[in-house]
Amino acid sequence: xxxxxxxxxxxxxxxxxxxxxxxxxxxxxxxxxxxxxxxxxxxxxxxxxxxxxxxxxxxxxxxxxxxxxxxxxxxxxxxxxxxxxxxxxxxxxxxxx
Length: 97
Prior knowledge:
Elements (H helix, E strand, L loop, with lengths): L3 H21 L3 H14 L5 E7 L7 E6 L4 E7 L2 H9 L9
Antiparallel strand pairs: 1-3, 2-3
C-alpha cells in the first residue's frame, strides 16, 4: 500500500525527471542564447560559449545539455588582457620599484 508520503516523493521524482528531459531536448542555439542572456544579466564578461558534440574533445565546463542529450554547451573564461599581451608579446606582470 502506498502512503501519501510515498506518492508525493514518487510524483516529485517523476516531475524532476520530466523537466530534465525537456531541458536536454531543447535546441542548442536556443539554450546557448538563454545561457548567454543569464551571464550578461549577471555581469559576466570575457567568456565564450560553444556547442560541442558529446564525446568530442573539450576543455571547457559543461553548462547545459541540448539536442536530446547529444550535445552540450561549453563555457570557457577568457582573459582579454592576457590574450592581448600574448598577441603583442608584452608581459602582463607589473614590475615593483
